[in-house]
Amino acid sequence: MAKKLWGGRFEKETDPNVENFTRSIQYDKQLALFDIVGSIFHVQILKKSKYLTPEEAEKLLNELRSIRNSIHNKEFKFDEQCEDIHTNIQNVLEERLGDVALKLHMARSRNDQVVFSTKLYCKIAMMVLEKYMTELTSAIDNLVSRNDIIIPGFTHMQHAQPVYLKDYLGAYVSMLNRDKDRLEYISQHMKIYMGAGALAGTPIDSMEYCKNLNEVLAEFKDLKNISEKVMIEPTPNSLDSVSDRDFVIEIISALSIIAMHLSRLSEDLIIWSTKEFDFIEIDEAFCNGSSLMPQKKNPDVLELIRGYTGRLYGNLVSVLTMMKGLPLTYNRDMQLDKEPLFDSFEKVSNELVVLTGLIKTLKFNELNIKKHLEDESLYATDLVYYLVKKGEPFKKAHGIVGELIKDSLKRAGGIQGMDDPELKKYSYKFDKKELESLRIFDPRVSVEAKKSIKRA
Fold first, then answer.
1. Which member of 145, 156, 291, 437 is catalytic?
2. Which of 24, 39, 187, 290 is catalytic?
3. Is 156 marked active-site?
4. Chunked mean pLDDT (size 10), the chain, 456 residues
5. Is 164 helix (H, G, I), strand (E, B) or coil?
6. For this structure, is 243 an active site residue?
7. Which domains, from first to last, does the chain contain?
């Protein structure tokens, strides 16, 4: 049974089933490096406050850096019998330094340790995620720059009006840009506090905690990029600092929205890849086959992105539900925020990476897209605008064109097969030659006629 950070008040050993039930190191070991950052910073505070001699502080810093290097190089052996990662690191320090390591926990609790580590983890993870989103938006931009295509736009999954491919996929770029802004906002407003202790604060002057982390983060190769974005502040309310999980809920909520956007994009690509649409060709490297039907080429990657969205929603609901009935301050229930948080970051990161690769290799079947653009109903609104320009009230023009479309579906030649007298039965303002000269049924003319969109 691994040594714990507590226990003096207890006479009995913890029941083995309780040990297994309460253990979290199997997933919170992801916080190892961030726990080390907090410990290095805390040693400096204890030294400045004279709770550690310069010699004791130097010993602790050297060992913490040694552990940090072994974790970074994947040489550190995590003790899965430990209660959590904080205990694991503390036990290693005690084995190496003896009583000096026991001084590290002065003015510190796991309650504030875990919040510090989790917030720093989130800062890094959000930066990585923003990088992946930028790579995906760049892949989409490159895709549309290579394909100056017009496609049918849809409402209610029915042909609506022609649109540029760059506008269609650009809608997803807009979504992802909002997602990046949302993460940046969360990161900027996520304060990292020290000095809360277990809940009531500590004997150390709170101003000792108000210091930039640059020097500590500079020692960590993977953390240099965020050194200027992380400020440590003295806790404004120690009870709130240890019991707050709003930041976890906000982040998982933001990740759920990202997942929803990726799911919508995946659904569009799934539809476009069907034989019925046949707009796109998904590279075989991003598809799977069937164990029975040899002809199948299935978009499994896109389906899983769509499917995992439900899991991310579940992660959000699980943390919201866990927090809803907790009294102040820390309760062990709050340990259960880590798995949903880690899982959400992992799933969205993986989705962004694999979707970027798929987008980079995507090909469009322009001939099949052009066949869809032959549908005259796509230009019904353009016909309404034509009549409006000739003085017809919009609602009347709308009804005229609706009747025209209905009747055209019953004849082989469609609207374009009608002669001038036939068109004038619907409105004397129709002029066959004028319609042809205006190229009303040309998709490029249709999209270029829309002036309300701000274009570069």
1. 156
2. 290
3. yes
4. 67 85 94 94 91 96 95 93 94 95 94 95 94 98 96 96 97 98 95 92 77 70 68 90 97 98 98 96 95 93 98 98 96 96 98 98 97 96 97 97 95 94 96 96 96 80
5. strand
6. no
7. 16-106 (1.10.275.10), 111-370 (1.20.200.10), 374-448 (1.10.40.30)
